[in-house]
């Protein structure tokens, strides 16, 4: 309950995002998971309204608004993130909702990754202060080099052909 109280009292940040569950929530939630993995990691909590719209316990709508969308997201966590993000943890959190009735939220913990992740047929995302942003090609390349996913050893490099003119090369040609 302390975790849920903390979520209710905070707005979105570079390591926390909340979403009410709707049909279009799935693609936005995947963006957030991808962005968290590509930056510092974080928590995505489903069934919680935006702090800009309402406050406290009034933010708790629960996942029963669209349980199918939650199921779809959990399936896509395994199949739509490339490469797969290891060690994502999904927690079902039981609590009293805004109506006073018992309901559930879903907390998804995404660790920071040492790889660069993209969404199948969508893009590569990074987390800002409280939102996601699609990365451009140079940002993706830079992040890949920073993380050691790409290096000069694994990339083709232009070489002046005359540098190959060595005694060993001439011996090979004979």
Structure, explained:
- The chain is an alpha+beta fold and about 170 residues long.
- About 30% of the residues lie in helices and about 20% in strands.
- Strands 1-2-5-4 form a four-stranded mixed β-sheet, with helices on one face.
- Helix 2 crosses helix 3 (about 65-80).
Please supply descriptive tags for the structure shown above:
single chain; 174 residues; alpha+beta; 4-stranded mixed β-sheet; 5 helices; 8 strands; elongated
Uncertain residue ranges: none
Which radius of gyration do the C-alpha atoms yield? 22 Å
What would you call the structural class? alpha+beta
SS elements, strand count: 8
**How can the largest sheet be summarized?**
4 strands, mixed
Topology pattern, helix = H, strand = E: HEHEHEEEEEEHH
Number of helices: 5
Helix content: 25-40%
Mean pLDDT: 92
State the separation between the terminal residues, measured CA to CA.
78 Å
| Widest β-sheet, arrangement of strands | 1-2-5-4
Inertia-based shape: elongated
Percentage of β-strand residues: 15-25%
Task: Give the helices and strands, then pairings.
Layout: H1 2-9, E1 16-19, H2 25-38, E2 42-46, H3 67-79, E3 81-82, E4 89-96, E5 102-110, E6 118-119, E7 125-127, E8 132-134, H4 137-146, H5 167-173
Parallel strand pairs: 1-2
Antiparallel strand pairs: 2-5, 3-6, 4-5, 7-8
Helix pairs in contact: 2-3
């Amino acid at each position: 309950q302390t975790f849920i109280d903390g979520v209710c009292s905070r707005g979105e940040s570079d390591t926390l995002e909340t979403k009410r569950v709707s049909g279009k929530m799935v693609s936005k939630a995947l963006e957030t998971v991808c962005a968290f993995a590509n930056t510092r990691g974080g928590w995505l909590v489903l069934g919680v309204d935006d702090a800009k719209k309402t406050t406290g316990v009034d933010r708790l709508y629960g996942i029963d608004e669209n349980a199918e969308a939650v199921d779809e997201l959990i399936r896509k966590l395994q199949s739509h993130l490339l490469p797969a993000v290891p060690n994502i943890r999904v927690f079902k959190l039981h609590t009293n909702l805004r109506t006073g009735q018992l309901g559930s939220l879903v907390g998804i913990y995404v660790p920071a990754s040492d790889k660069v992740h993209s969404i199948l047929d969508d893009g590569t995302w990074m987390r800002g202060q409280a939102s996601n942003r699609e990365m451009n090609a140079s940002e993706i390349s830079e992040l890949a080099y920073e993380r050691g996913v790409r290096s000069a050893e694994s990339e083709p490099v232009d070489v002046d052909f005359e540098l190959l003119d060595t005694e060993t090369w001439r011996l090979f040609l004979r």
